[in-house]
Amino acid sequence: MKVPFSWLKQYVDIDVTAQELEDKLFGCGFEVEELIDLGGEISKVVVGVVTECVPQEGTHLHICKVDCGEYGHDIQISTGAPNVYAGMHTAAALDGSTLPGGIKIKAKPLMGVESNGMLCSGEELGLNDDLYPGSEVYGLLDLPKDTVPGTPIQEVVGLDDYIFDISITANRADCQSVLGIAREVSAVLNKPLKMPATDYTTSDFTDPRLSISVEATDLCPRYIGHYVRNITPGESPRWMKRQLALCGLRSISNVVDITNYVMLEIGQPMHAFDMDTLESCQILVRRAKDGEKITTLDEKEFTLTPNNLVICDGSKPVALAGVMGGLNSEIKDTTTQLLFESAKFARDNIRKTARGLGQNTDASSHYEKGISEYTTELGMARALHLIQELGCGEVTSTHFDCSAGAPREGKHFTARISGINAILGITVPTDAILDILNRLQFEVKLEADGDTMQVVAPRWREDIEVGEPDLAEEVIREYGYDHIVPTFLKAATVTSGGLTAEQRAQAKAKRTMCAQGFYEAETLAFYADADLDMLHIAADAPERNVIRILNPISSHLTIMRPLLAPSLLNVVVDNLRKGNAEGRLFELSNIYIPKQQPLTELPEERLHLGFAAWGKDEDFFAVKGAVESFGTAFGVELSVERATDVAWLHPGIAAYILCKGERVGVFGKLANDVTSELKLPKDSRANLNIYLGEIDWVAFHALVPAAVHYQPIPEFAPVQRDLALVAPESMECGTLVTEMQRACKQLTRVELFDIYRGEKLGADKKSMAFSLFFQPGDKALTPDEVDRFVKKILGNLKFKLGIEIRE
Amino acid sequence: MEEKIKELRAAIEQASAAVTDKAQLSDFWQKYLSKNGEVAGLTKSLRDVPKEDRPAVGKTINEFKQWAEKEYQTLSEQVEKAALAARNAAETVDITMPAKIRPHGVLHPITLVKNEIIDVFAGMGFEIYEGPEIEDDDHNFTRLNVPKNHPARDMQDTFYVADDIVLRTQTSGGQIRVMDMEKPPIKVLVPGRVFRSDSDATHSPMFHQMEGLVVDKGITLCDLQGMLDKFVQALFGPEVKTRLRPSYFPFTEPSVEVDVSCFECGGKGCPLCKHTGWIEVLGAGVVHHSVLENCGIDPNVYSGFAFGIGIERIAMLKYGINNIGLMFENDLRFLKQFED
Fold first, then answer.
1. N vs C: which end of chain B shows fewer Cβ within 10 Å?
2. Is there a contact between B165 and A514 if contact means CB atoms under 8 Å apart?
3. Residue A195 domain-assigned?
4. What is the pLDDT of residues B143-186, one digit of tens each?
5. Is the ipTM, as predicted for this complex, more than 0.90?
6. Candidates B128, B198, B246; nearest CB to A499
7. Secondary structure element (H or E) that encloses residue A788, with its range
8. Cβ distance A26 to A32 under 8 Å?
9. Greatest CA separation found in chain A?
10. How many domains does chain A have?
11. Cis preceding-peptide flag for A149 (omega within 30 of 0)
């Protein structure tokens, strides 16, 4: 919201500098994002009077002597401008001066003649005709003869002004105007507010043919129309042009400028229809018919639906309500009579229309933020006043006011001084509270008890909803937040806090992974179907049943992830690209599982632990070690089961992770066909060594014992025997161990310590050497007993697997 | 006999000087001090001494024997010491060679900051609650006093997954879920992921927030500032303080923006605080009456405050990170810098 300092001064006698006002506004809730010093880029440019002007022979230049007052009465400056003449008052940029855009002017010879600066055009000073008349002439700025030489040029052309670019919070729609900000300035400076004039007189003329009706009162709670005739099109006055220009609008014609001016000043979007174009002199506010079309002022055609509100004449839409007028009823130079519209439209409807059609305008932006009916009334009155002030039309007596019946008074409520102070926690003196509320134009009556107040909020303050909390905010933002005295919950009950058992377990899971050399990663919770494709997830796999984002920000972020693995693989690839040749990463994050499609209830969010390890030192067993250690940290043994059917893992180097016999996850080497497609340089893909895994934390954690129970330490140490077994190459170590343990319950631990292959064993055979540990019970084991155990084990191996001891 | 002892003493002294290792030491013992050694031989030859001289000679022999044993003892210690020194020398390593490390990983800076904040508030008696990331319109907006046509919906660009189901735009919905489950006194912290359709150097479409809520009797704006002072001091150092300034959130009234005095320059003005001396760290306010009422809590009896902290923002300030994207890139060279 851009507000010129000079414009504000019309309503409030501001006796502080722009910088001081910026601080005051900041303190009461209006952050000035930028304080623009209009002439701030200009320095050492002053009024200069051309006392002598001699054409330089053979050039287009004039050599001038310029009187610049205190800067020198006889400064020689050459100019190429054709309109220079002796006696001209113009803008002289002196030696060492700067112009907008950081242009520096230095004394230097021009065509061989010393020129101690530059005489300027209006455009070189950043001016246009609206800001300062005559700025756009070809040549030098021709200033009035009463300007004093040596005066800084900013003061003469109105660049000694500031623009406040103020950020307005969403609740303060009433401050989307110069008047709105002026009300706040008046309150914060404690100076009276001088309201803009809104008085006007009407002629006796009425036009009985004209009619206005509102059909969609839900979308248009208030519609005021006024008929103005005998329009004399022409230019707007200089003050109006300048103020529009300061806010970035170009002057068009008096009538159009009035509508723009009222929007900036009062905050009410105004529209004017050319009466001659309105069929049957009729206005009807209704929802558009399905497929109905309108071409707006900017010559764009839109096809509408009943969700769009239109202003129609006797047969067709003539405006897209609250967004833009129709081309068919536009005000032109030839317009002689018009209908002013000042209305309130439902803000979410305007928002949806503006967004839906991609047609965002200043008007729609005001309506989306909210217009009060007070503003609607004030806007119309101000527009009619300006018509008369500018003398550009006859304000007739034909006036329409269609209202859905909203009250015309401000909201009333009862509040207590003590209630306000209880919210703030300090005691603001009653007088101060009353004074602040008065300054903000609340009507306040303090009752005899000295505490209870009857309060009426200003009509434009639609944000005031619940009484004491709202008033507390009004009071403290004016009284000053620096009056708050920090206290530490002096009245609150003591509570116990901290993490739940589940949250502590999650924290432990992260620490455990860190201890295994894994760095914690944090990836986005959404990716795209392409990321599932990357892992070769089948089209009919359960992971393909995903939650889709209806309005994604990018085509890479369209689905809520059903699996962490793609996210982690992307991170690995990214790291490899950056030259991080090895590493370990994990993430403990949710995956998302829809309960139905399309969603009608919240989906399941399930915590998964994903992990990745890559680099020359990694192999399946290194990662397996990390997995087993993870289980150990939680007091459970994690074992493996061959996984050949996981699309993204190598069918020969992958395993399901079992906890108490249940599958809780999977890990292994990235499948060769997935690896070969990774977006990495071709030669670097050949030697990639990437391991990925994912544990269902919820399933895992459910199997973890809640508490540790002490087991008595065995009295006797285990007895060790070593065995070498000859097995076919295809025999898995785990199969042998399982069969050995099955044969003897005293065999509590088996460790593989060597594998030997050699000619003596024969082709396709290997010898596996194990250390067997037998745990005695309540008495020591004799060598005979251990011999018997070994014999039993060997017997079982031979019977079940056909395995023999190596001779 | 005197003569014999003298000779033997000389022999032992000479032999002992020649002993340098354990084998020689053993030979030395065999020769002189064993059962059949030369010192024992002296005792045997006592038989040849006249009976009346025996006590005196015996004493002399005994003294000599003690001397020889002591000599052996000293010699033995010397040899042991020399052997140990030799072994140590042989085993000595070059301690400047590279260390063998099994590197451990570290937590992500978001987790570190999250844990730090949780620690501070857990100590003040806050429970930690985590609500759903995919949330219904009701919890994310409506019951937080943001009805369907409310302009505040435009403050946040919301991702939708169904008509009335969104990726939560704020952890504030946790307030509603907690107040549905518990009645005052309530002190709860709601950390979690939130999502908004926004992406640039300071915005990520997914980021983390930490919502705090206190509801009890007699809670005031002064309590809010007092608690936040403690919080920022725990995070940024004992000398920092907070500043409140008016703001707007639909679910608090009054609402404030909370700035912390710049911990880099102490408030004098520097690039970090954009020369203002203050850094915006969080939004807060007194819980709106409608929000309490929406959860069946009587606003005439109870009051409370709520605050929302952007975890990435705190992490970026704390570690001097200038681009939020780095947080989600997970470049190991980035992650390795955050040793706890």
1. C
2. no
3. no
4. 999 887 776 676 568 999 998 999 999 999 999 999 999 999 99
5. no
6. B128
7. helix A783-801
8. yes
9. 131
10. 6
11. no
